[in-house]
Amino acid sequence: MGGIATGLEWVVTATELAAVAILLLGLLRFARHFLTGDVFHRNAHARGHRLNQGRLALGRHVLAGLEVLIVADLIRTVLHLSIENTLHLGALVLIRSLIAFFLEYEIRALDTR
Question: Which residues contact residue 14 at a Cβ distance below 8 angstroms, ignoring those fewer than 6 apart?
Answer without folding.
Answer: none
